[in-house]
Amino acid sequence: MANNEPVRVLHVFDTTLRDGEQSPGCSMNLPEKLAVARRLERLRVDVVEAGFPASSPGDLESVKAIAGVIKDCTVAGLCRALEKDIDAAREALAGAVAPRIHIFLATSPIHMEYKLKMRPEQVLERAVSAVQYAKQFCSAVEFSAEDAFRSDRDFVCRVFAAVIAAGAVVVNAPDTVGYAMPEEFAGFIRYIKAHTPNMEQARLSVHCHNDLGLAVANSLAAIGAGADQVECTVNGIGERAGNASLEEIVMGLRVRKDYLGVETRIDTTQLYTASRLVSQVTGVKVQPHKAVVGDNAFAHEAGVHQHGVLANRATYEIMTPESIGIPKNRMVLGKHSGRHAFEERLTDLGLSLNEALVEQIFAQFKLLADKKKVVSDRDIEALVMDASASAPETWKLDRWVVNCGSTLSSTSTIRLQHRDGEVQEQAAVGDGPIDAAFKAINRIIGKEPALEAYELGAITGGEDAQGQTLVKIRWNGRHWNGRGVSTDVVESSIKAYIGAINALEWEWLSHTSSSGSVQA
């Protein structure tokens, strides 16, 4: 970039709650989605794609809920090029301060022939009519040419010119299957910009998948070629190998602003907490060597590296931990710590909570501090997540007992309290204490969901570390996640299972009451 060239401002379109949630194992309940949406708002993304309203009553309700609370960025709903989908998005986005209807339709020969069973002229006509229909209800309409990179370039230009004329304010050119190479994708974007007659009337967006590990490289190449918007997800979650990683794109633009001459409105100090939140609610861990937000991103083990960093951090660090919001441990929190110190730590961690939630979590912190000498930042994050992003409690753990050993069968007695005040207790035998506890819970709730995944880990090191358990259950073709935290791994497992059951019960009741029937 020449020194006298103006800096371009790139729009960041986050699709963690839509494309990211489509990743196997990444489903979220409504409180979790709201927590992520609020975090994205604090991150200052330009657009939050909240979901696919026509896909299910639950998705419509979650988009509606998110649209009702997000004020500082655009909220988008995805639609097929169908009037019924656009109607669902219109309903879901009615309460949004800045709504966007996002329509997609495939343009590649293979998609048109085998998936759509439509001719190119039919696709063009459908795209235009869908945009015109959506434009009646929403001034901000985005059109995506699914599998654009594998499409005929001139056909993509024709479609884009037509939908822009019909009212689209953003046109998106995805590399839907992650097939492109960076310079190749940059050339594709340059061609679209040069050969779409009215391109200056709309923003050109890109949406890259990571099947060959090139989603971020392709996105940056496209930005360098003139793309105005980038679509991405926190931690790069998404279908198959994932999407372009928001944090990697944003920090790539920040660190190499001298080269690309592009900036965003993202508050980079919120990147770390956003990454941690998405990891916690989805149960998908960030690999230690993940760029920008991985545990090893700022770790230095080799002696020569350590020496260099101690002399001058710039020898081996091109960005600072503070620039992405990794908190500095300025004080140790323990059982003698007061409310003020606790609130200061919440602020350092970028956790903004209402007074009632702070009071609740502080009480849990004091109980934990009685069991641990030092309460870590990750312990606090886990407490916050457990309290703020869980489904409403249909069932609450009252007490539990397990008996197990190498010479006797494992048994468990569980007592749960229902939200209407009724207390129920059941006992069961299982293959180990956790299996026995889960079976006892099933007897109480009268359902037997399949346990799809069970994951147990320590939040921190040390013999007094809290155990964090993630469970995933399946019932009637749907999946629900639950998490539990405790210094006792059996208790954390029981809490996680009850959390998943509560998510199931709450969503099941919501669907039944809202639609009169259950959507499996």
Biggest beta-sheet profile: 8 strands, parallel, barrel
Strand order of the largest sheet: 2-3-4-5-6-7-8-9
Which class of the largest domain in CATH terms?
Alpha Beta
What general form does the structure show? globular
Strand content: 15-25%
Structural class: alpha/beta
Annotate the secondary structure layout.
Layout: E1 8-9, E2 11-14, H1 16-20, H2 30-43, E3 47-51, H3 57-69, E4 74-80, H4 83-92, E5 99-106, H5 109-116, H6 120-135, E6 141-146, H7 153-166, E7 170-175, H8 182-195, E8 203-208, H9 215-224, E9 229-232, H10 246-255, H11 257-260, E10 262-263, H12 271-282, H13 303-311, H14 339-348, H15 355-371, H16 377-388, E11 395-405, E12 408-418, E13 423-430, H17 433-445, E14 450-458, E15 467-475, E16 478-486, H18 489-515
Parallel strand pairs: 1-10, 2-3, 2-9, 3-4, 4-5, 5-6, 6-7, 7-8, 8-9
Antiparallel strand pairs: 11-12, 12-13, 14-15, 15-16
Helix pairs in contact: 2-3, 2-12, 3-4, 6-7, 7-8, 8-9, 9-10, 15-16, 17-18
